[in-house]
Amino acid sequence: MDTPAHTELRTRAPRTIEEMALQRLALRKFAPNTGDLLGAQLPCGAWSNRPVTAIPNAYTTGLALIALANNPWAPEVRAAVERGFSWLERTQGREGHWLWQWKFRLFDRQVRFDPSKFGWPWVENTVSWVAPTSIALLAYRAWNRPSERVPVALAMLEDRACSAGGWNAGNGHAFGVDLDPHPDFSAMALCALEAHAAGEPSLVERTARFLGRRLEECGSAYSLAWGVLALQRSSGRHLSTLVQSLHRISNPNAATLNTATLALTALALESPAFDFGTRA
Amino acid sequence: MTNRRNAIGALALAGTGGWAVHQSLSRRIPAKPRLPSRVAVLRCDSYDKAIQVVWDGLKLLSPAVRGKTVLLKPNLVEYSSTAPINTHPTVIAAAVDGLYRLGAAQVTVGEGPGHVRDTELLLEECDLGAALRDVGKATFVDLNNDEVHRVPTTTSLTALAELWLPRSLLAADVVISMPKIKTHHWAGVTLSLKNLFGVVPGSVYGWPKNILHWQGIDNSIVELAATIPVHYVIADGIVAMEGNGPLHGHARDLGCLVFADDPVAADATCCRLMEIDPARIKHLALAKSLGHLDAENCEFRGDNLGALRHRFRLITGFD
Fold this sequence. Notes:
The structure holds 2 protein chains of 2 kinds.
Chain A: H1 4-9, H2 17-26, H3 35-39, E1 47-48, E2 56-57, H4 58-69, H5 75-90, H6 98-106, H7 130-142, H8 149-160, E3 173-174, E4 177-178, H9 183-195, H10 201-215, H11 221-234, H12 239-253, H13 259-268
Antiparallel strand pairs in A: 1-2, 3-4
Helix pairs in contact in A: 2-4, 2-13, 4-5, 4-7, 7-8, 7-9, 9-10, 9-11, 10-11, 11-12, 11-13
Chain B: H1 2-27, E1 37-43, H2 50-61, E2 69-74, H3 89-101, E3 106-111, H4 119-125, H5 128-135, E4 139-142, E5 148-152, E6 162-166, H6 167-171, E7 174-178, E8 180-184, E9 188-190, H7 202-205, H8 210-214, H9 217-227, E10 232-242, E11 250-260, H10 263-273, H11 282-286, E12 298-302, H12 305-308
Parallel strand pairs in B: 1-12, 2-3, 2-7, 3-4, 7-10, 8-10
Antiparallel strand pairs in B: 1-11, 5-6, 8-9, 10-11
Helix pairs in contact in B: 2-3, 3-5
């Protein structure tokens, strides 16, 4: 189905690799093209979200790999994908190193997490966070690629969940306080767990409940779109309400949405909604 | 006896080493010769009165904004219906209005929240979107997603030789930091200098901007303060936060707004209002060459500081 989001999206020139990858995904049936994504890959195999900075970014690399999995394969795609996964394999949150694990276990204990369960950082030389770990996990699933990193990263997501369900940027508990989840990070992590058929059923259920409740009155197309993309597998109860809200918000306002939000909206309004963990 | 002598020797060595490191760090920060700083603390016990008090404060501060582009950088972190986490929208809107009245050519409000990617949702939930629409003429820019430019850092306090910073920040003639007055579990306080973390773009460095934490929070704060010119400060202390800030502390009525033309002097004044010794806050002690930490070098206007002081609780274990 061609929505106003699709129509508007065709007019946009992406400014970041996140926008480019999501745009390519949303328009994969209309204007398949991966040349620009391939051209933006860094020599190390990663993608930088802002090409001008050339700073490798795991979140963006995951998105680029998912976009490549869903577009027709040019002969050069396979080599680019190999280099992308090679970078992901050797890039990990700092807590993955024994020295930092020791620091977090003995001295730096205000934020409660298990440093032996790690995933991917946004940028190198930092710790793992929920969004880059979730998107990298979805890239592994989209390419059906086995890796020893996958179960460790899935365990990290479970370890970092908020007690009420859902996720925020990185931790569920700090300085003696349970932290609140955020809709987009919760949705990304839920997509990743479900794509890998992982996650405690009660955590999945609590997260779905949180998303349904949190997004009920939400006026932001970005969070709503992520909510729809995440809830399509786990919950039919809230899904139709969120889809209606997303139509209501995005249809008249497509021209004012940023490109990433437009693309996520287009993906969420596909029927059925796009599944990040599968290859078209 | 030998053990005691060894222990005293080790302590002396550690103390000398610490002093030498501090001197070495301080020397890396380019000193800025300054006139006495202007600081105004104005009593304001309710957000209903904020529009008038912000205008009074701007008149006392008389910022040089006529014909200039101004970027207001408030502190928007996360939405909470109960905790005073963010700079209050009434104060931000009043500043926009006041700056236009003083002849500013363009006033932009810019923030790049560190924990939240959905800035649009945050703007609506904390009512800033509505407040800016009411004022009119104010545009909001999400600094996390703005165009970025490379800027060399200036202190070598961190290993970051350069930072990619938002065009809206770099292009503004005048930058005004608008923090919420809060204590902070890592940095001691979060005021106009710590507020600069929000200009570092998430679209380059991620959410949160964890690269700054790994460079040392205090060093990163001073690196940013030395690299980014902050011309004025308007700090929201009407309802402040004590204890486990910046998110989970307790609301504390401080009942004032702080205006200054020097971020170091502003933050030192906010510390004194909270009965915290500014020299005890590592990033402020490090930043003393960027402004006036000592009250003797400030010209105070407005209300008497002494009458507005409240002892704020820092998180247990902060030293």
